[in-house]
Design goal:
single chain, about 300 residues, alpha/beta, Rossmann fold, 12 strands
């Protein structure tokens, strides 16, 4: 997919070095096609890393994609420069009169807080309400998935006795759903969180379909029956070294944590981990873009 990325965005150079097909506004304007417009609400602290991860996965399709990053107005990020946010991000008040073909709501390291105590919770719920009539399909990741399950379907999150971190095996629960086309019956994906949702509560919700789960990590991929919402409780967008960076960060901060499960070769943090979930991540994002965004969105929003 030729993905339209601002020329000065830091992710651009990284992705070009990986031979990802990128274009800028000038070239995009010469193509007489209707691009998909994707909105990304980036709640992760290290904005630039998340930008690169998501743009990489959105690139694997023949569709042209325009991406707009969104930040919160009620909370200012402490880990991203103001100039970066002002140059590449908009706020909800700036985009609320627009419509988007797809939207991604990322995770956030705030699981210890009840949802209502999150500083931008009211703003997030306003955005989630707005998305119902202004976005064709929304993909929610990790804490973003838990927030969607809670707000839209009344399914709560529960504290784990210790951080769930590592690479876990997952099984398909409903292989006939389009989102899972081409996905292996069993596949690996990263998780990094302190809370969980209960599978029995997901199964009891008549508006949800459980698509994939893990015996150790619990429900992984869920979708609303109206295909409006996709929830992923893990971080399939992570790069090979992301969990290692998080582990070293926790160790440096003096946080007691286990070595990420089944991640470092030989369970030795001195050994460089490898990416064993990349193909599933590309396919999952490509399926979402194709079947739930491109195939469903109107050519011209009214």
């Amino acid at each position: 997919m030729p993905i339209n990325v601002p020329y000065s965005m830091p992710a651009r150079e990284i992705l070009e070095n990986e031979n990802i097909f990128l274009m800028d506004d000038k070239r995009a304007a010469t193509q007489d096609i209707r691009p998909l417009n994707i909105l990304i609400l980036n709640l992760m602290p290290e904005k630039e890393k998340t930008e690169t991860q998501l743009l990489r996965l959105l690139s694997n399709s023949p569709l042209q994609v325009n991406v707009q990053f969104l930040r919160t107005e009620t909370y200012e990020s402490k880990n991203a420069s103001r100039s970066h946010l002002e140059q590449f991000y908009k706020t909800f008040s700036q985009i609320k009169d627009h419509r988007y073909d797809g939207m991604i709501i990322t995770g956030a390291p705030i699981e210890h807080l009840p949802f209502e105590q999150v500083g931008y919770w009211n703003e997030l719920t306003e955005i989630m309400d707005w998305s119902i009539n202004h976005v064709t399909s929304v993909l929610h990741i990790c804490w973003g998935a838990q927030a969607a399950l809670y707000y839209h379907y009344g399914i709560g999150k529960y504290q784990l006795p210790q951080k769930l971190t590592g690479i876990f095996n997952h099984q398909l629960q409903n292989a006939t759903v389009k989102l899972l086309r081409g996905i292996d019956d069993e596949f690996l994906a990263p998780h990094s969180r302190y809370t969980e949702v209960f599978e029995d509560e997901v199964l009891a919700c008549e508006d949800l379909i459980l698509l994939s789960s893990s015996k150790e990590a619990g429900p992984f991929i869920m979708m609303s029956k109206d295909e409006k919402h996709v929830m992923i409780t893990g971080h399939i967008e992570y790069e090979a070294l992301t969990l290692a960076e998080e582990y070293q960060r926790d160790i440096t901060k003096g946080i007691a944590c286990d070595i990420p499960k089944d991640y470092f070769p030989g369970n030795n943090p001195n050994n460089k981990p490898v990416n064993r979930w990349r193909s599933q991540a590309y396919l999952l994002f490509s399926n979402w873009l194709n079947y739930y965004v491109y195939q469903e969105t109107p050519y011209q929003w009214k």
